[in-house]
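We modelled each protein-ligand pair independently. The example shown here corresponds to the uridine-5'-diphosphate entry; the chain sequence is given first, followed by the ligand as SMILES.
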Amino acid sequence: MTLYVVSLFLPYTIDFEAAGVRRGRYAPDGIHAPLDDKIEGRLAELRRHRRPKSLSMTPGATTDHEKIFKPFYASQSHADEPHVPGPNEVRVESWGLSRKFNQPRSKAVVPPEPSILSRQDKNEATNEPILRNVDGQESESDPDDAGSPRVLLSDVDWVVKAAEQGNGGLRNAINAAVKAGILQDKVWVGTLGMPTDSLKEHTRTSIAERLEEEFESLTVFVSDSEFEGHYSHFCRTVLWPAFHYQMQEEPRHKEYDDHSWRQYVKVNEAFANTLAQRWKPGDRIWVHDYHLLLLPTMLRQRLPDAEIGFFMHTAFPSSEVFRCLTTREALLEGLLGADLIGFQTEEYCHHFLQTCSRLLRLEVSAEGVHLPDHLIPVKPFPIGIDSPSLNVLRQSPEVREWITKIRDRYAGKHLIVARDRLDVAGGIKQKLLAYETFLRRYPKWRDSVVLIQVASSMSELPDLEAQVSKIAMRINSVYSTLTHQPLVLLKQDISFAQFLALMSVAEIFMVTSLREGMNLTGHEFIQCQDGLVGPQKYGSLILSEFTGSASILSGHQLLVNPWDYQQCAEVIDQALELSPEEKQKNWQFLIDRMTQHTATSWCDSYLKALSDAYNAQASQDPALVSSLSIDSLKDKYERSRRRLFILEDQGTLDFYASPKDTTPALEEHKLDAIRSLLSDPKNVVYITSSRTPKQLELSMKDVSGVGLIAENGCFLREPGKAEWETLLDESNTRDWRWGIRKVMQYFQERTDGSLVEERRFSLTFWYKDALDQELAVRQASDLADQINGSRGTEPIRAVLTEGAVTVEPTNVTKASTAEVAFQRMCSSGDNSNGNGNSNGNDIVNGDKNSLSQTTPDFLLVAGGSRDDESLFRWANKLSQEGKVPNVTTITVGTHATAAATLLENNTTVTDVLTVLTNTTPAAAN
Ligand SMILES: O=P(O)(O)OC[C@H]1O[C@H](O[C@H]2O[C@H](CO)[C@@H](O)[C@H](O)[C@H]2O)[C@H](O)[C@@H](O)[C@@H]1O
Ligand SMILES: O=c1ccn([C@@H]2O[C@H](COP(=O)(O)OP(=O)(O)O)[C@@H](O)[C@H]2O)c(=O)[nH]1
């Protein structure tokens, strides 16, 4: 049984550099990418030939910093110092992050020009661009390529190396889970993250084979232009900004969007096709992140029985932002093929659910998305770091060497460190403005504080980059002295070893992201401050409240609103002023919280929840719920000595009535069926309902001896009794009733024909009789969604049933009241059924059968709507725990259910009851 871990980038890629090899961010000896000895040896050999590359520095930065970082700098190009390709090198653009010089050339235009569609010849039949080779013949290459030097890369040597791009947090988590023995058989699925059009077919094949055999990796090949449109454009300039609350017009263009959307679809399809060819029954598929939002449904279409999970690493925006995306419905629908959808935080789950409710008009609840035939759970799984591996890495000689260097260089200084993407959401601009405010407002620190800001990727937005440079220049020119410079801005990533050293030495780590899925670097900073390597500083984490991390570190003293520069400045000062004891207390708080969310526990809890969701879905599938065998039910009925019936009225015995209905009594033949049941002293019957006690009594007319459970469990009337018991007290509704009434009235005023009904413990918005049903359904789902989303700590929930939204207390349900009735029945020692009839089997004290005579040995639960599911689960539990030997749960209608059986061929619950009490042989099922 294989787990396919699917993300856009494989942890490995290919290097065609014959004379030297660069080490990327995800260095082979780092936490990631365990390479085998053969490859490692080869890399070591090649590394010796590595050339140091220059570094892009802050305007105004001193050469000291350059001296410190330059020799170890990752081999990326300098914008002002272009690399000139050698005769055997082909200059290429990499996908999005940094330039690379040793890879096959990209065939794509980055970003695509508006004229991309018109400029290309099109195949009239397929509407696809016709690509021509250098000789002008149709080929798989791009016309832009004409005239460029072409290298037959199949003849060039290649090595496998750790990829620079991709999700480090995910890779670490999967590797940690493998080490912990949670994952035995896993296969990475992804692209190489480099242009592959110009590779010969046999080169691709041998790369794919090598990666599969030696690196547990399944390669997905897509054309360069598809990848470019998908990643550089749709992912990076449409989805990423939107998911981080930046709706940008520039550099977008309608044509870009349409074109790149098609490429986004195609890349998702390529993943689906590759996986569909490989998947075997029992294999599991775990899809990751915003690059592959369409994949779950594409997979479901190809593999209806597969176990498919999806986890979103980035933030998910509010529905108000998401709805701006032109492809919003398709993106949401793309996810709904998954068995489980995970997000980093509760907040993102809520946003997603609300978006599904508002844009797709789906029924949602705190549990997930309710599709007609199943529930897709939507849950938070905050990712964490792999501390044991980090600790190994921190103790490497390279990190220790760097710690010494940085400590010496910054002796006597207060070091603030940060590493973020140079994009809008990364918040570098806001951080610099806050830092400038800090230097202005707190002059006493000016000569001793240094902020080292690493920008971990090249900016995709030149304007932003220019603004950041300008602010940096201003800070350094205003606040530098002959011997001190307060800001170092490295507009390029540093090696991970350098970063670990910086985090070990720093006094403060500052994250001011305007929005961020999680932010694991903050966690790593906390870990690096424990004194395992370098000083035990218990340094302070200043953290934006708009990160996922803030939600698991809530209550932390140094959370900031990155837009509030004054507050950020104050918090920097506050952090610098903390006493050692306060620092240690804060640090302890953070490390305690963090250790509840580790990389391994993330993986483990997600995969367990995925199995549960998959199994639950299989059991909920109406196609798999067996139809009721009336013969076998009758057989059990006849063999039992004490029977309990819990029957729902609305939607099961009766139709759904609105308060406007004037004939609430059950039809006579239905009442007769209940009377017949009650005429047998072995039978105890409860009718459950969302109706009020009064309405329920009216609907049961003069049936004596029937037990009643009204208002979804808030009221109980035991069989044979005239008085009602309330299972809640009035104070339960006092706090929320007024506010909920107002919200309901708002919706009622905007939905013609709807009404609000007040009950003692609940409020119902009835839209069954609304004039415009389409609008009413939308309003109802919005209302339920708003209430469930903003109920805070109130013990209430909004339940959407056919024609109504009921807001009711959560501390009582039909099931909890049925349990009260059941327990009383078991412990009363009374074997009468409330109808003046006594069970024929007298109880003899001490007789081993006495228990079975008061405790039911037969339980039948019949329901029809979603709020009856709690009753089914309760009954199933009694059965599993062996408390009741014969349990039958029956659902009416086709929907996701925990019930074991359903009724077929227009059979009604009344028909079933009639057969049971009829002495004639049961009808054939
Ligand atoms: O650069 P991309 O290919 O667009 O990918 C986006 C980022 O993905 C990863 O970050 C996301 O996952 C992290 C771990 O779950 C989470 O902490 C972060 O907030 C998410 O954005 C990756 O680690 C980043 O380097 C990528 O930029
Ligand atoms: O060379 C590297 C760079 C990053 N990471 C890990 O990748 C994860 C995510 O890094 P990223 O820069 O995306 O930071 P985040 O957005 O999660 O803070 C972190 O746990 C890092 O330890 C790593 O192991 N090696």
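The radius of gyration is 33 Å.
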